[in-house]
Amino acid sequence: MIKSELIQRITERNPHLYQRDIENVVAAILDTISDALARGDRVELRGFGAFSVKNRPARVGRNPRTGEQVQVDAKAVPFFKTGKEMRQRLNPGDEGA
After folding, report:
1. 82 Cβ partners below 8 Å, 6+ apart?
2. The domain that contains 52 carries what CATH number?
3. Domain containing 70: what range?
């Protein structure tokens, strides 16, 4: 699902709201999550999951085309861990989730 599909689905479920207002709310939520991750904060949405940032150290990689060694810089990458309720919805018969 892409952002426009999410907005459309929310609009269909809430016909009393204007689509432009829903677009603004979705954009505000995503911007807030992005801003928090950029600051290095963790964002937890209970029942859904948690967004965090993991730091990958610099390393020596390999160019797959030439086999030549290349230096890969350290970087921060976003990470998402599903919440317990989400895992249970995805795996209804799995009691150990």
Report:
1. 48, 49, 90
2. 4.10.520.10
3. 3-87
| Residue reference for tokens 């029942």 | 47
- Residue 80 is classified by DSSP as E
Tokens of 91: 């795996």
- Within 10 angstroms of residue 37's Cβ, the number of other Cβ atoms is 17
Task: Report the SS3 class of residue 59.
Answer: strand
Which pLDDT tens digit goes with each residue over 2-47?
Answer: 999 999 999 999 999 999 999 999 999 999 999 999 999 999 999 9
Tell me the per-residue pLDDT of 49-60, one tens digit each, with 9 for 90 and over.
999 999 999 999
| Residue 17 domain-assigned (yes or no) | yes
95 located within any domain: no
Instruction: Tell me the pTM.
Output: 0.77
Tokens found for residue 29: 């939520």
